[in-house]
Amino acid sequence: MGDYEAIVIGGGHAGIEAALALARLGAKSLLITQNPDNIGKMSCNPAIGGLAKGNLVREIDALGGQMGILADASSLQLRMLNLSRGAAVQAPRAQSDKALYSELARRSLEDQPNLSILMDTVVDIIPSSDGRRIEGVLTERGITIGAKVVVLTTGTFMEAKLFIGQWIGPGGRLGEPAAVGLGSALRSRGFPVDRMKTGTPARIAASSIDFSRLDVQQGETKPIFFSFLEKEYQRPNLPCYILWTSEKTHEVIRGGLDRSPLFSGQIVGKGPRYCPSIEDKVVRFPDRSKHQAFIEPEGQYTNEVYLNGLSSSLPEDVQLAFYHSLPGLENARIVRPAYAVEYDYLEAASLYASLESKLLSGLYVAGQTNGTSGYEEAAAQGLMAGINARRKLDGLEPVILSRDEAYIGVLIDDLVTLSPKEPYRMFTSRAERRLALRHDSADLRLTPLGISLGLVSEERKDKFEKRKNGIDEIQHLISSRRVRKADIDTIEALRPHLGESLEVALRDPFLGKVMDESASARDFMSRLIPEAKEYPESSTQTALLEARYKGYLEKESRIASRLDRSERLRIPSDFDYRAIPGLSKEAMEKLEAVKPLTLGQAARVTGVRKSDLALLYIVVSRGT
Q: Most Cβ neighbours (<10 Å): which of 90, 361, 469, 557?
């Protein structure tokens, strides 16, 4: 094999973004994967986006990444979540055709100049003679391949084990081998390697389900996009279905706990707090008589459906029994059983904020290998690792996104600061400035950076400039208008604002209800400003949201500035968090474990909400 400037290990969502970023930035790159047929494969849920995760996808897209394009092109159903709540917590979510997503992901890599793909398994890294920098990798077939930078994105495959009841077997996904050797090699070289656990539900034959007994969850008919390119594809709009467990279900699960690897001690890795298995839910919440679950399509041309909310590692006979206790699933047939997977990961405290290893120069780590959970979190890290690996080759300073700039900045700061011991998942509550980090504003925040880096295509650049100009023009129209009597005749809620600036009037919560009930932002604006009909819906929506939440955005900015100063506000090492009335239990547990030295550090502890931080700020300030 010849040598390369960059090697990416793993063809999952992190590996895809890292490899594409490196190649698009001109690096001669090689992606090594155990099986090219599985590039971009969705190991768990057949969906992209969701609360906070949808924001990550839009940020990836704004920087010139691929995930948003793939999600749009492979969607089976699109929804905007939390429409009944504020813009800060709204986000797009797509049910995806898993086979099509993987096919399109592989094609994007194969069509990319400067990028090659090799089917093999990496079993070791090759450091320089002084042990300070990476020089290449060693594969299972004994091939040595040189590179100046390496991005490690092994996902759930490194030294991985599968668990179904008392059955244990090697594998990173059911039916796919584990990546054996690399985890042990990294341990022997002094890297902080530990174990984590995740799981996935069963796949059931759709033909064995009585859907007439289930509540239907339809997608939206109006266009929703992840990519700011806003390309419309001829895709189906397939329904999902809602079901609930019952006490009978829970009895069956409790009866099988003696054969559960989760409770027998066979699984030692820590599982995700926010996405527990159904047996974990039953044990942790004994007073709950039911739990919600969803049936989601896996693809347009498959009979398999996904049981979201019912991940498990119980024996197959117990799985089948509790499925049969669910309405509509009395005759359900399992195609693929639910299972847990335990795997090696590297503690993120050993990384710089660039995602480069502190132990070995030129080695970058991204995705579930860092202890995260989710396709979106993995892709975001992969993109940043690829960008910074390219900058390393060029002798340039790394790109570090701040928490004020992007959810990606929040994600990476949390990882390297806190080094989570359980799979990390992104939530809107983790971001101090979540209103400023809305999904619709991702391109305004990040596309100029993508352009400066050279990641943004001419097509995307032109689209961005037109959208930004449109937003500026609409904002000017809003700020230059006053509420007229004719406007009141059109929208009664404007009556208290006669003669007032339209920009100020738009902040009225009562008027906000009228906006939310309108068919679209453009429909609402055109009732007041006829020129708004000439602008795209997305531009009108962003301009309207900026005007509507201007006061909150300014307040959020002031709070952020105050919190910046709080980096210097120290917390005593013997501080009693239990003495703070109103502090959430999760925040109390996490703060006691981390023992942050400053209020700023406490703000970055996973699970500490803004409300918790405000209480802590008051108490600590009084003591200084």
A: 90
